[in-house]
Amino acid sequence: MIPYDKRSGKIWYNGELVNWTDVKIHVLSHGLHYASCVFEGERVYDGAIFKLEEHTSRFFHSAKRMGFEIPYTEQAINAASKEIILTQNIANGYVRPVAWRGSEMMAISAQQTKIHVAIATWEWGSYFDPKLKIEGIKLNISNWRRPAPNTIPWDTKASGLYMICTLSKHEAEKQGYTDSLMLDYEGNVAEATGANIFFKDKNDEIHTPIPDSFLNGITRQTVIDIARSKNIKVHERKINPIELSNFVGCFLTGTAAEITPVSSIAEYNFKVCNVIMDLNESYQSLVRKKRAA
């Protein structure tokens, strides 16, 4: 795989298209040292970004919650996102907008720092091995927990919030798992390291944790809408880990993960059942509908 700093083409950087390898930030940028940085993850299907406006709105919400203002309008970011996928000729890939505080100040306080914005895109297939998306992936249960909602800006895509996700995923991979289930601060089921989680019971009803300490994913919301359109009952509720033995199926949702079945979580096993496969087919059909540019 080509390292991301060695790729070619252009990146939209502070309002201009800049050569990929020329996009630089200073080593003393506040965003690097103090995680004053927010980002988005978006999918391109057949040359169009799925739910672009929703992602951009969340991007701006994240920045506001982190105490800074993105120096462009949402409309300008939407236009720049479309421009960069055309420039890079991306048919099916990923888009990463990111905003961070610069290097004017180097301390906890960063009131006078410049806010930088970049948007990069690249061709990208499945987040997980395609074979695993058919057979289901295996998760362990992380020792790290999602923090209480009064301790972090939990409803944002802020870079610092993903530190424990990286730690959890690395530990899972060392143990032979694909990903890790994270519990919340109360010990209830929360999410995977970068995706929301759903369970199917024996009555073909869906259960998913209430997103009150982790991100309410755009894909999560989309899948709930699809399920309800099929008259599948969806229960958003607290889920205790001891309930895992009661569920027949399990799957993850996310921009990167899309809909990915789970075959096991620790000692609990699940089936890749028809309900999950049907939801996935409907999701794939939705994201690949031709949309206006």
Properties at a glance:
single chain; 293 residues; alpha+beta; D-amino Acid Aminotransferase, Chain A, domain 1; D-amino Acid Aminotransferase, Chain A, domain 2; 9-stranded mixed beta sheet; 7-stranded antiparallel beta sheet
Characterise the protein shown here:
The protein starts with 9 loop residues before the first strand and ends in a 6-residue tail after the last helix. Strands 8, 9, 10, 11, 12, 13, 14, 15 and 16 form a nine-stranded mixed β-sheet that branches. Strands 1, 2, 3, 4, 5, 6 and 7 form a seven-stranded antiparallel β-sheet that branches. Helices cover 26% and strands 27% of the residues. Helix 2 packs across helix 3 (74-87). It has helices spanning 30-34, 52-65, 74-87, 130-135, 163-174, 218-229, 274-287, and strands at residues 10-13, 16-19, 37-39, 42-45, 48-49, 93-101, 115-123, 137-145, 179-183, 189-192, 196-200, 206-208, 234-236, 249-254, 258-265, 268-269. The relative contact order is 0.13. The protein is globular and about 55 Å long. It is an alpha+beta fold and 293 residues long. It contains seven helices and 16 strands. The chain folds into two domains: 4-123, Aminotransferase class 4, branched-chain amino acid transferase, N-terminal domain (D-amino Acid Aminotransferase, Chain A, domain 1, 2-Layer Sandwich), CATH 3.30.470.10; 130-287, D-amino Acid Aminotransferase, Chain A, domain 2 (Alpha-Beta Barrel), CATH 3.20.10.10.
